[in-house]
Amino acid sequence: MEIGESPTHPVWKNDLYRWQLNAPVPVPIVCDKSLQNVPSYLGQDYHGPISSTETCRLLEDKPNGAYLARDSKTGNGDFYTLSLKFNNKIHHYKLYYDNGGLYVSTKRYDCVRSLVADGLVTMYLQLKAPQTLQTLQTISYQESPYMTLNKRKLRVLSKEYAKNNNVFALPQPENTPCTNEKCEKPHQFKVTTFKGLNWCELCGNFLWGFTAQGVRCDDCGTVAHEKCSKKFSNDCVPDLKYIRGVFGIELTTLLTAHNAKLPFVVTKCVEEVEARGLTVEGIYRLSGFAEEIECIKMTFDKDGDKADLSQEKYPNINAISGALKLYLRLLPIPLITFIVHPLLTSAMQNSKVNETIIVKNIRDALESLQKAHYDTLHYVINHLKRVSQHSAINKMTPHNIATVFAPTLIGPPIAQSAIIPDMTTDILVVENLIVHCDKVFCKHLETSTHSIMV
Q1: CB–CB of 198/213 below 8 Å?
Q2: SS3 for 94?
Q3: Is residue 52 within 8 Å of residue 90, measured between CB atoms?
Q4: Helix or strand or coil: residue 114?
Q5: Does residue 28 register a pLDDT over 70?
Q6: pLDDT at 181 over 70
Q7: What would the DSSP string read from start to end of 202-271?
Q8: Are 434 and 398 a contacting pair, CB within 8 Å?
Q9: What DSSP assignment string belongs to 124-176?
Q10: What does each C-alpha distance from 412 to 326, 334, 452, 454 come to in angstroms?
Q11: How far is the C-alpha of 314 from the C-alpha of 277, rounded, in Å?
């Protein structure tokens, strides 16, 4: 399947990310005694030689996530004991230290708090989403995000790689992705600690945790879970890391990398639509050709903000509007994030109350958006309002636009649900954002400040 107006399956799976947001946070139990010879790699959560009975007393009335470190009676100095409250039970683990740092299993950490934070996420996922964890690698390699987002680039670049490295490349149909018959170049995966949010390019699931969440290929930059990385074919194309593109990249990570306030894909598409598409009937409702949208995507991947979207290059404005929707739909975290979506839904529960209260509730909900998401949403909604102001000609009223954009801005429902979601409330949310845009986004982009909720 070529990238087009509507992928037949979700590219990114966000269930594990949503579970991580709900995981307990570390709550260190600080020792109130003066201890001698405290190891430098242990902090104030180290309690020395206290008994398990005393440990349980200290933790029993504390919230999940509470922890402390102590001496182990059976360790003979070889290890300590980490005591942690989780799922309303107290668990005890052997805590080791070597030159690589503190560890309980294989990962190394620079402090106990980091170890506990990472461990709590994994324990919480194992408790709440065991089936998801067990089926991480069930996706077909040919339908993986790696292929969905990169197949055409892989096809072109692997031919060049084969030519430049005297590797025999079998002739294949145009819609066939790169396979190990083409270039036979294995990926060079190394365990990596990612600063931002990342998703596995094989299974599409979130790389959970805060330390050594997965692996990255040194040659092409492909990201994956460590177990998933073992299923990749020998189709690494080293040049790929220089043109990895912008579609499917987490928004805050992308803007930070480009030192930008807004994604250039959005601004350039909006500028083109406003220049020649505001009076086109069915703008955003009508789909452009999948092949044209894919070409626009590749143009952005290759040329960045210098991409040519002119009428001479793409006379069909629906291809430009389709590329914008595709970009927003492929964001790993949708523009209206999983944290803010229920807040906006709640704001609509009393939709029959006066307009002032509705606007205030929506504005309060948007205050929880990350700045990158708030600014981009503000820009997009402003644009959609201008589109709706020409509804007499383009037939796109605020309600019609909201019907098109609600699933794009809000993202897919939880994967486990077999019930077709009712989009009525989501459409109402987007419609109110458009209608009350000036009142909801009352702060300018340059002066808005918002909390970053990871």
Answers
A1: yes
A2: strand
A3: no
A4: helix
A5: yes
A6: no
A7: TT-BB--SSSS-EEEETTT--EE-HHHHTT--SB--GGGGGG--STTS-HHHHHHHHT-SS-HHHHHHHH
A8: yes
A9: HHHHH-HHHHHTTT-S-GGGSHHHHHHHHHHHHHHHHHHHHTT-------TTP
A10: 14, 9, 22, 19
A11: 12
Q: Which residues pair with 224 in a beta bridge?
A: 215
Collapsing DSSP to helix, strand or coil, 347 comes out as helix
Chain centroid offset of residue 73 CA: 44
pLDDT value for 5: 46
200 confidence band (pLDDT: 50, 70, 90): very high
Query: Of the ranges 140-144, 219-223, 331-335, which is most confident?
Result: 331-335
Q: Are 247 and 255 in contact (CB under 8 A)?
A: no
Averaged pLDDT score across all residues of the chain:
85
Side chain identity at 441, as an amino acid letter? F
Burial class (CB in 10 A: 0-12, 13-18, 19+), 367: middle
Token output for 293: 């949208």
SS3 360: helix
Measured distance CA(301)–CA(285) in Å, rounded: 25
